[in-house]
Amino acid sequence: MGDILATEADLLGMIKEYLKFGEFEETVQIFDKECKSKGKLVSKPRGNALRDSKTRVIQEDLLSSFDDGDHKVFFELWKENIPSEGKDLDAEIQGLEFYLHVHFTIFPLRSHPDRTEFEERISHFKQYLETRGAELSQNAEFLPYYALPFVPFPAVHPSFKDLFKDTWIQQLKGRLDKFLTMTLKPSKTPRLMTLYVSFSLQLQLQLAESDRRLSSCLRKFNKMQADYHNLIGITAELVDSLEATISGKMISPEYLQSVYARLFNNQMRQSSDFTRPGTVSTQYGRPKEVPILPSLDYEKLKKDLIEGSDRLKTLLLQALRWRLTRSLPGEQRETVLQAYIGNDLLGRYSTQQKTVLLLLRSPNEIVRQYMARLINAFASLVEGRIYLSHIPVLLKILMETLRKEEKDSLTWENVLVCLQKLSLRRSQQTIMIADDLIGWLTDELQDSDCLSDYTLVYYAALLMNLCLRTKGKKKCAENAKLVLKVLTDLLGHENHEIRPYVNGALYSILSIPSVRQEAKEMSVEEILHCYNKEKNQDFNRQIEFIIKQLNSEGPESDDEDEEDDNDEDLLETDLYREELLQPEHGELSGESLLTTEYLGIMTNMAKAKRRSTPLPQSNGDGPLQRPVTPSSHRDLTTGYFSPVTTVVISKLVVTSEDWRKGRRSQKHL
C-alpha cells in the first residue's frame, strides 16, 4: 500500500512540474487545492538542485578516476553517462575518447613503472584499436598511436615521450572537464515530457522495425507463392508427360530443357545435355569446400578451465560448445570433435586430480550448467558418446549431479538428456543398471503429474533403454509390482509422447516369467484392454503385442552377447536456447575468444568417419526393442513429430501417428 501511495505522489508531482513548466498558474493553484481537499500527497519535483548534485558527483568521479588512472571505473561511468549517439558520431568526442585510452594505457609507466599492469593495459588498448578506435586509423592525427602497443619503452621514444609530461596530462584533463561540464549539464525539461518523448521514440522504433519485418516477410511470401504456383504447374505437366510416355510417346530433350529453365531460371550455369542421364543433378548445386577451423592450444585451454576465474571458465565452456555445435555438419564438425577427443579435452587419460570434467562439481551454478551443456553436446554425436563412455568417472558424476541438482534447472535437464543419450551404449547401460538408476526412475515416475512434459519424456525413454537389457529386466523383476503399476499408469497419461517408451518397457520386462506372473495377478491384461479401445490403430496394435507377450510361455531371451547399436548423431537444431551468459562490452567470447587467446599449432586431427550400418526393418507394428533417444524422432525442421513418415527402430517400426500429439520442449542443450 505504501508503494502505491508513493507512486501516486510521484506521479502527481510530475503533473504539477509539467503545469509549472507550461506556466499554467491558475491550473496549478486549482490542482493544489483539489489535491489538498482529497488528502493526496504531492511529491516535490526533483528540480535542478538534485540533478545538479547528481551530475557534479558523476563529473567528480570521472575526474578522480582520471587522476588515479582507474580505467575500469572511468570507462564504466563514461559508458553509462555519455550519450552513445555522440560517442559514435561526434568526431570531437571520438578524438577525446582516443586520447583518454592512451592516457590510461601508459599510466602504469608514469610514477612507479609497473610492466605487468602496462602489458595488461596494452592488451585492452589493442582491443580498443581493433573495435571502436578502428575508424580513426584513417586520421593522420591518431595514426602514430597505433604503433604504441609495439613500442617496449614509450617513455623514451621520440614519438611518445611528450605523453609523459605534466603539461600534456593537464591539457587533456582540462579538455575532459570542459566536455563533461557541457555534456552533463542538467536538462530543464519536466520529467513527464521526458517520459512521453522516450515512450514515443521507443514506439516509433518498434513500429519501424515491425514494418521492416512485415515488408521482408511479404517479399518472402510472394516469392514463395510464385515458386509454389510455378512448381504446381510444372508438376502437372510432368505427370501428363509421364502418362504420355506410358502410351508410347517420346519426350524431347528440348521439352526437358524448357522445364529445367523454368525450375532453375536464376541458377543455371550452362546448358545441360538432356540426352545424357544425370547431367542436371551434377550441374545444379555443386558442394562448396568447407574451411577447417583454426587449431587451438588445448593445454592452455585445459589449464584455464581448471585454474581460471569462474567467468573465464564459463566463457570458454560456451565457446567450446559453440565451436562444436555451430560448425558445419561433415568434415568441419568431425575435425572439431576429433581435435577435442585427440587432445583429451575432458581428461580421459589425465593423471591429475583436477580435470575439466570436475567442473560439474563447481560451487558456481553457471559453471556447472555450461559444463553440463558441453558434455550434452559431446553425447549428441556418435564419436562423442564413444569418447564419453571411456571416461570411468563420468557416469558416477552425472548420476550424482542428477540426484543433487535442483530439478528442472538447465543443469539438471542437460545431465538427464546426456544420460539418456549415453544409455544408447551397452557399457553405459550396465553401469546405470548396477547403480540402480531403474529404481530411482521408477520412484520419480510414481508422481508423473508433478513432472514437466520434457522431464517425463526423457525419464520414460531412459527407463525403456535400461529395461531392454537382460540385466535391466531382472532389476525390474526385483520389484515387479511397483514397476508394472508405474508403467500401466503412464499409459493413461495425457502426454501421449511417452507411449512408445512405456510400451517398449512393458513389452521387454514381460519376457521375464516372474514379471508375467505378477502382471496376471494384478490383472494387467484387463487394464491393457481398456486402452485398446482408442481410435489410434497403431497404438492398439502395440497393445496387442504386449498382451500377446503377457500370455506367452516361452523362456526369457538373453541379449548379453549383442553388440552396441550403430546409432546416429542426435544434434538438435535449438542447441543455443536460453544462453544466460552474455559477453560484456569489449569482452571476447565464442570463436573470437578461442582464436585470439588460444591459437595452437597442428592440434586438429582429422579421422575417417565411422560408417553407421542402417538398422534392419521388420513388420512395423510392435513396441520399441532397441535403445532410442527422443531427439532421434523429432522433425528438426518444424520442431514437431513428423506427421507423415514412420520411425524405423531396429526390429520393429512405430508409425508417426503415435507422435502427432507430441509437444515440443523449448529447453535443449
Automatic annotation (TrEMBL):
Keywords: Cell projection, Cilium biogenesis/degradation, Cytoplasm, Cytoskeleton. Residues 607-637 are annotated as: Disordered. InterPro entries: ARM-like, ARM-type_fold, ARMC9, ARMC9_ARM_dom, ARMC9_CTLH-like_dom, ARMC9_LisH, LisH. It is found in: Cytoplasm, Cytoskeleton, Cilium basal body; Cytoplasm, Cytoskeleton, Microtubule organizing center, Centrosome, Centriole. Residues 57-185 form the ARMC9 CTLH-like domain. One of its GO terms (biological process) is cilium assembly. It holds the Pfam family CTLH_Armc9. Its main location: cytoplasm. This is LisH domain-containing protein ARMC9.
